[in-house]
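Why does this matter for the project? Reviewers at the last site visit asked to see concrete outputs rather than summary tables. In response, this paragraph embeds two records directly. Each consists of the residue sequence and, immediately after it, the corresponding structure tokens. Nothing has been edited or filtered.
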Amino acid sequence: MDKFIDRLVQDQDIESWYVATFDKKIFKDSGVYLSFRCDGYCDLDPDFEISEEVSVTAIDDMGSGPSLIHEKAWRNFLEHAKNYEKELIRKLWAIVSSEIDLLDFQEEDLDPMNGKKQNFWDQLRVKLDLSSSDCLKSQVHLESINLLDHGLSEIGIIVFAFSVGWDDEHGVEIAMHEGRVLAASSSGDLTTRRTNIIEHLKCIQEFNFDEGDYRL
């Protein structure tokens, strides 16, 4: 573990980001094989390539470079990877369930996109068992793991970034701390909040909090 920080290389474009590639410990067999198209149809990509590695970024908002708070978060993840994956699946499944339920309360004539999204989920029901979180294996792909230098203790918050089939434009980010889900948002939202991350997570929890999440 003492070599973790040594493997990180400063990003050429974003000076506060230090990046390395590591073997993927979770979501090894998950990929976006079925994705939403703007015309409302389900796009099948049987040749979607699943990477055996994942990009890990230590985000240095405090200006001290990669530090112990990043390393402790990474160590905690490695030691409890199975629990992290279990909790991430729980949260992703809650997001999918909310997406499906929301369509039942939206009228197509108010937004034509609602009908297209409904068509997408109807097609998915034919191809997948949407009663089980196992369907996520063809709907999510872990793109990156981002270690923040802010946390609820000496262990930093980790943000997991996913591309997802039901929203290939925005994706999903999920913030966790010591194996507990804090909140979810669209890609880029959580990793760019810098020193305001805790307050932002609290705001998200005000309108989006699922059973099993950790209340701040």
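We now turn to the second protein, recorded in exactly the same manner.
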Amino acid sequence: MTGDGDPANTPPRRRFLAGAATALAATTAGCGYVPGGGDLTWREPLRVGSLAFDSDRWHLATDDRLVVVENQSGRTYDWEDEEWGEVENAAVSVLEPDGTVRSAGETERQAVGSPAVGGGAVFVPVERGRVTAVDLSRDESAGGSPAEGGTTGGGATDGPDDDAVRWRVDFASVSGGGESETSGPALGGVRASGALAVAVGSRGIAAVDAETGDRAFAVSDLWTDGSGREPADLTLRVAVDGETVWALVPGIAAATGDGNADAAIVGYDRGGNRRAERAVDAGHEWIAVVDGTVVAGAPGASMSGYDPDLDRRFTLDVRAPNARSTAVQAGRGRLYYSRGRTVASVDVARGEVAFEQSDLPQGNLAVDERGAYVAGIGRERDAGTEARMAAVGVGGAVRWEAPFPDGVEPRELYAFGGRLVALDGDTAYGFRAVPGDRWSPLG
């Protein structure tokens, strides 16, 4: 329902930048120029529609793209019915490594929590307790309005078929909660793999098939700890690994039979059966899965890893981060996190801290198979307030470091497809992530 600009009259800025870069490379070829880490390759606005956008926006990086989900509102014209109408929904777009931004589709309602990506789709929790799956492989030139269509799954809503929307499912229908269509249950977000999409609600979780939306299982009253209070961010307590859903559950000491514990890690299979369960200390607040190892963190205290049967593999007395760490699963078995100007990496297979690298720019963290990247305010010797970026390899050595272009203040950072992408407002800046020599007139 949204329209892109006129590409015939306004050439994309990245084409100009790419052409300028090519000309510069040709001009300086005799001066020893080699494109290197931190070199700017393109700059692109992220918004692809013409409607007004709200402040709620989510970014999700995969190995080869960045998925953007943003709430929008306003008036749009329906050419078939020849009338104006109000739109209150969320737009889904995809940013490719070369800077191309394309529209993937729209939801029928506005997003209310953290989306998730898996199996070629993005799963968006929307208003009134519904999850909408938007297929990311859809060609934006395909017909149909994603805000009006949708295929059906177990408990899915009605509506004509549409190429962009894979399915829509009401959380109440798969959780057995019985909430009304008007109010709906409160959804904090979605966690997903290529096999399952799991809606995380204020009372429990509900899993559906990622491809069809058919019900898999639901667990209600999962977060009750006996005091009537709920953990702050429930999505941090859920991880999905293939067809296994892992939950870090508070207040189940009686169920585990361990009087000294008031929390547990529980693994559910696709049918909702408990395949593994282990009591843990109540200080643990987040869970992640890295190369088959279940990792739980107690912020500021420790980090522990368990095999799929929840036998302990390691416990590290480190200052675990407050939120789930960023995990790299491309055969590296690494988990990265940052504190202040220090980046740390945990080798999950060995059960040890692989490295801690200090004296780095303080700010955002991104990771890929090559290691970690940080971007933010530089050190005092770097003029104090200059925004800089640095790349740290899997061995802990700094691969390269560079300043940002003048006026760019990185608010978020992502690494995918050989690019390091920094977001500043509505604009994305793509930099080379590979190491190399920066330009020098001396060759």
